[in-house]
Amino acid sequence: MTGNIKIKNIYYMLSYAYQTLRETGYNNVSTEDFDNIHDLFAAIIIRGVGNQIKRGLYRDYIPREDVLPGLRGQINVSETIKQQSLSQGKLACTYDDFTEDSPHNRALKSTMLMLLRHGNVKSENKKNLRKLLQYFSSVTDIQPTEIRWDSMKYHRNNASYRMLIGICRLAVKGLLLTTDAGTHRLSTWLQDEEMYRLYERFVLSYYQQHHPEYAPRSSYIEWDLWNDADMTYLPTMKTDITLSCGDKKLIIDTKYYGHTMQVNTRYNSTTFISSNIYQIYTYVKNSDKSSTGKVAGVLLYAKTDEEITPNNDFNIGGNRISLKTLDLNREWHSITEELDNLCAWLDSNK
């Protein structure tokens, strides 16, 4: 399924998930034609890192331990004694080094090297990646698998890195594969788990940008309990997207799977995925605690190449439940038109 999505549409999805890509510095990327996903990531990283170099690479205080001819920071007494440094006129010191060799820059360098070594990147982009890597000579080489994405912090001085690191993370976690021999190669397409996250983030960001009148958000739903029962072990209900208009509410749950239908080989039958139906129904009924019928739910699947795909509307227990598919391989205006049409129920009198 995933390999059938236009590369250009992946860029558009990224531009909603990462708003920085909609800035003028990335306009030329949107007009390029890409043969593969590796080239797309390379082009985005080249523009982003190039812009960052003009601003200056982020520097941070990194803790160091070293044996030095003079005092710097604090003396590590135990190491000084252990290494008999005093007899050589030296001290084992622990100090903070203000350097470009930060986790953020290590992640950028590692991702660029990954695309160079393993990626199907055209020669012009490879040339540009090599040029940029010259600015990272003081940054330690690490393997992509060593990057600790969740440990990176962002603040005013490195806010421009947030999008870049997000793109790098998507490239590494979505493309990097380890072979049976322990070596690495890049997948020809993003893994479904990473595409699912991108798909969900894109749909929410699209509504936030183009339909703020519906207050698009991800929201928690409380269980409609009739007593004071212990809720400790009840699962949390959190929507992917919630749209509101007056007293009406539309809950959208995005689904990115290799299959949008379930097949029972024993009975040779094809049905909707039951767990998805139960999930959206539970969200809707617990959100519509007064049974007004003014809460609806949509399961929004990314279209697959299956012969049968969901495209149905039901009224279940007084609430509208819809199953829709979004074809990510169509022209972009058709994709956005389908997303716009999902809002029609909110404006209707039904």
Automatic annotation (TrEMBL):
<protein>
    <submittedName>
        <fullName>5-methylcytosine-specific restriction enzyme subunit McrC</fullName>
    </submittedName>
</protein>
<dbReference type="InterPro" id="IPR019292">
    <property type="entry name" value="McrC"/>
</dbReference>
<dbReference type="GO" id="GO:0009307">
    <property type="term" value="P:DNA restriction-modification system"/>
</dbReference>
<dbReference type="InterPro" id="IPR014407">
    <property type="entry name" value="McrC_bac"/>
</dbReference>
<dbReference type="Pfam" id="PF10117">
    <property type="entry name" value="McrBC"/>
</dbReference>
